[in-house]
Amino acid sequence: MDQKILSLAAEKTADKLQEFLQILKEDDLTKLLQNQAVKGKAAGALLRAIFKGSPCSEEAGALRRRKIYSCCIQLVESGDLQKEVASEITGLLMLEAHHFPGPLLFELANEFVGAINEGSLVNGKSLELLPIIFTALASKKENLAYGKGEVSGEECKKQLINTLCSGRWDQQYVIQLTSMFKDVPLTAEEVEFVVKKVLKVFFKMNLQELPPLVYQLLVLSSKGSRKSVLEGIIAFFNELDKQHSEEQSGDELLDHVTVSSDELRHVEGTIILHIVFAIKLDCELGRELLKYLKAGQQGDSSSNICPFSIALLLSVTRIQRFEEQVFDLLKTSIVKSFKDLQLLQSSKFLQNLVPHKSYISAMILEVVKNSVHSWDHVTQGLVELGFILMDSYGPKKILDGNTIETNSCLSRMPSQQACKLGADVLLETFKIHEMIRQEILEQVLNRVVTRASSPISHFLDLLSNIITYAPLVLQSCSSKVTETFDYLSFLPLQTVQGLLKAVQPLLKVSMSMRDSLILVLRKAMFSSQLDARKSAVSGFLLLLKNFKVLGSLSSSQCSQSIGVSQVHVDVHSRYNSVANETFCLEIMDSLRRCLGQQADVRLMLYEGFYDVLRRNSQLANSIMQTLLSQLKQFYEPKPDLLPPLKLEACVLTQGDQISLQEPLDYLLCCIQHCLTWYKSRVIPLQQGEEEEEETFYEDLDDMLESITNRMIKSELEDFELDKSADFSQSTGIGIKNNICAFLVMGVCEVLIEYNFSISNFSKNKFEEVLSLFMCYKKLSDILNEKAGKGKTKMTSKTHDSILSMKFVSDLLTALFRVLLWRYTSIPTSVEESGKKEKGKSISLLCLEGLQKIFSAVQQFYQPKIQQFLRALDVTDKEGEEGEDAEVGVTQRAAFQIRQFQRSLLNLLSSQEEDFNSKEAFLLVTVLTSLSKLLEPSSPQFLQMLSWTSKICKENSREDASFCKSLMNLLFSLHVLYKSPVTLLRDVSQDIHGHLGDIDQDVEVEKTNHFAMVNLRTAAPTICLLVLSQAEKVLEEVDWLITKLKGQVSLETLSEDASSQATAPNHPAEKAIIMQLGTLLTFFHELVQTALPSGSCVDNLLKDLCKMYTILTALVRYYLQVCRSSGGIPKNMEKLVKLSGSHLTPLCYSFISYVQNKKSKSLKYTGEKKKEKTAAAAATATAMARVLRETKPIPNLIFAIEQYEKFLIHLSKRSKVNLMQHMKLSTSRDFKIKGNILDMVLRDDGEDENEEGTASEHGGQNKEPAKKKRKKEMKCLS
């Protein structure tokens, strides 16, 4: 039968073939086809013949085709056919599909859709045919019966796609189905259907099936819905990452962990590569990605900025056209994240409203951690990002050339945190990726060398961390480090010191590197540049410190541990130590030559020797002998000769130039420190051993003793430095005398410290110390007196003390036991007046010292605060160490706070005339420092807040600085407990009561919430303080509104905006309206207050302008919300009403009051000066001041008008008349008054004209005052 069909098909006409096929039963035909196909015989030829004999123009032929199609689809789907046969049949079906009439095509498509939704497909091979059927169906122009009506082919296709996307897809065909849609012509709406369906299926897919599925989805996105595709992929992997981290951090059994980290990261990496490849081909996709992630910045970015999206962005930086945009987006996101964190930490109001979320910095470090799983495409972006952050936000140079040093207090600033994040990213990337190490090191070293003029401490810190982490690994990069050494003599000293300190661990493992450094340093030692020689000395000293000689005390025996103790390699073997000795003695020889160089070079040497000795005690002999021989050059050996030192030899005269040749005070200081350390550390260990010829320390002791005795006997005349001496900076003798005076003072300080250290608290030694101090003081007084008389007081140099911190602390402990005990045990009032020095009692000096110590510890030693507070607690016993560690910082700080609270209460309970404002101010400063250590949620914090509030309410003092510091403390505590708006309102009422009203006829009822607010302190002190606090509250509200706007715009873009638009934001909206309502009452009080001209008025006008800008922002937010929800809350209506009745009219009255006041002061200035020229100059100055002070007025009026403009829009949209409470004011009329202009132009100098002008102004300003009174009555009613 098959042969007959084929022979008939070979004829020219198909008539006989048609007749033959008509006779055949359909079942016979399908069986024949099945047999042929399964056997693999000429199924294709048979199928062509059947199609030739079944033209679609005839109904029977079309039906036969339909039957054959169904049969072939089942055959292909069964999997019984050979691959080539199945492909041939599918190809023929595709070719013939467009001949079908519409209704049959629809049937065929429906059959397919049904099969897919029912899950009856076997291998999905037949799905290749579906796009052709859909395409053919869409091209049919005639209407087809669908349901109860008729629809076009295009509409029919749409309905079928809708049905297909609404049904269930079998997991194994998802990729094929997605791929199929790329060949179907789809409208934007249909693409959205399909994309949503595919994204829903993501969660059911196996992890390994996701990359090909995402690839097909990206191909499909070229037809549209790019945003939905990207949004869906990012949201899915964000969710997957969260689930994975929860599984890993949870306590579940390992069986529950669905996927391994390695597998998940590899899949994510592949998908990121697919997306980047798609963006290269379709730039629109890249633009859409950036647009989507930028939109997230406005609102809650946690939904779209996640580790996956950051990794994706970093990979996109490899595409040149997007590189800059991506890094800008990441930079702004990072800084915004840190700013948000800073704002949240400083405000309890915001903490209650905004949930804690993960921050972008943690996400970026998460990406670094994940990049270990072959994410090479992300690594380069991470390195670039790290350097961009460090370059953009590193320490900056300020005007006087100094850098702003970052300390633990400053490092809380967003820019410093961004810089630290950059360094962390680079360090972690360096640890994980071997391939990129060389590049990171090169880039860091390049910046160290090329940016010598700008601060690079952050790069040096990073370099130090990198080298400390892996000195052995970096040996392979040693050539780059050696190359950097060649630039040492051209770099600033600070950079050289930082660089050499950082590379120290490398020098210990690489002999060649050490040798090349020594060559460079030796060359620098003989450079013509002073800085290069100083760098050489600095480098050699550092080497001496860190290459220990055999027999030196271990670091545990030293007072400080070695800075590079983290080196992972043991380099202190016996061989090394012997080699080190030769090496160190060579360096000492080089350094001895420096003793003939300039004072600056010698000074560095003297400052460094003591450190070297402590780290490398075997060099003691060499160092002490060097110092001894140097001192002998300036020492008078005869015991009776006065003075004991040759000061003349220390000064160098070259023509007119006189300069310091030998810093003798620093030489003695170095000797004293080395000697004390040597006697206390080395000599006790040598007892019992045979004494070598180490008499140097006895010689030095004798010399210092002799110098002490002779210095006490010497008078200032012996040094030629008495009162009659010339100390002016303009003459050679004066400069020389100044140098000698500073040397003598330095020597006195050194001898004081030396004698105190060997005194063992003996009376004789202390008398000697006092005699030396008297010598120091006499000279210091003469210098101060001479500097005071001279006109050039600014040029007189201050003398830096060379007393060590240990001596100062020992001395203070000996004198006062401790500052804290001395101050808290003996009240200032008890002290005799005779003990006062420069108006300060000893107790006050103790308090000042305490305050400086507290602030220094908090600023520079943040991690050690716990130990510091424990050391302060004198009740602690050694045995209680265990339980003692349990006591937290809050409890310890609270204990100290109570002592200072008692002191302040005692002070405040004294009479007004006995009140010591300086002491009170210091106490509040100490309390402010300590209160920062309290945990805001602790009862101790609440006690501190209520105590401060009570003090402010019950005590009235007129000292401005004390009042300001106390009120500042109150506000700083209050914001961490709750929003300070009610506090602001109460204080504003007090200010209004004390200063009176702008309308003199109105009597203001005095409130007395805070006694601290009085006539002297109300303005400007407290007024400026509350205005700055109000500004902070406005900033917080503005931040919240921006956040809400961002959320609404994101929700509006999503489908279910209408149901979600208002519900989640309800608490935040309510809080914003409450804040603005209370602030409005605060401004209501201040705009009626008769404030003095100047900063108070300026700041109030600026803050009012800000208030209206934020009210406008809130109105615009409700304009957005109204689109979906259609209404505004009642409390918003009340806020608008309040602004119309209690603020806007009063603002105009206040503007009139300010302008009136300015015109009066202008007139007064003109009258005061009688002479024409003087009057003109005075008027010009006054005019300039008036212009400056009235500048904010137009801005305020514009802000009010903008607010009213948007209120009109909101009224229309919400169908609520919000403008009924707003009244237009005449004060906004800025027209030129002709009659005044004529009078001024006619005769500027005549008094009557001036009076006329003033009366005009007066007339203009009366009317708002009447209005105000009426308004006041309305408010009261």
UniProtKB/TrEMBL annotation:
Residue intervals of the FANCI helical domain: 284-370, 555-783
Pfam families on file: FANCI_HD1, FANCI_HD2, FANCI_S1, FANCI_S1-cap, FANCI_S2, FANCI_S3, FANCI_S4
UniProt domain FANCI solenoid: residue ranges: 64-280, 378-541, 799-970, 983-1237
Domain FANCI solenoid 1 cap: 1-53
GO BP terms in the entry: DNA repair
Compositional bias (Basic residues): 1265-1277
Feature: compositional bias, Acidic residues: 1244-1253
Span list, region Disordered: 1243-1277
Any one GO MF annotation of this record: DNA polymerase binding
PANTHER family per UniProt: BC025462 PROTEIN, FANCONI ANEMIA GROUP I PROTEIN
Protein name, entry field: Fanconi anemia group I protein isoform X2
Protein species of origin: Carlito syrichta (Philippine tarsier)
Biological classification of the source: Eukaryota, Metazoa, Chordata, Craniata, Vertebrata
